[in-house]
Write a structure and sequence with these properties.
The chain is mainly alpha-helical. The protein has a domain of about 80 residues. About 85% of the residues lie in helices and about 0% in strands. The chain is built from 3 helices and no strands.
Amino acid sequence: MSLVSFSALFLAEPPETAEGFLGLPMWIWQLANLAAFLGVLGYFVARPLAQAFRRRQQAVEDRIVQGRKQREEAARLETEIHERMAQLDRDLADVLARGLAEGEEARAGLIRKADEEAERVRREAEEEIARRLAFAKEELRRTAADLIAAAAMERLSAEITEEDRRRLLGEAVKSLPEHS
């Protein structure tokens, strides 16, 4: 026998079972069974899957919203950081300018103090020179007076006799005031 005739015999329903259960043909029962299976499958599998997909979709949308918020926050922070950096650059420039100005003021003050100190030292040096010059002149006068006195004494000693000395001594004694 051929394979086709064997399969036809095998697949053909026997005449006594063609009627099916409760007088309904078997194909209706099979269709009802398929509908019940698909209903149970839809209730127990499709619903939870749909809910899981909805939750997953909601989670993805929440992450997208959260990502947008984070991106906006990152952009805001970037802008804030750029503003702070610009402010720091301005502050640094201000500090540098202020430092230069204060440095110039300090330099000018030091130059002014150095000039005042130099003027004070010059005045003190001039005063010291004047004092030493006056002292030297006084010393010179004393020395000259001493030399003149010594020369006069020498000359007088050579020219004055014993009698002249007695006479001069007597005159000096007479010119002294009398003390009682």
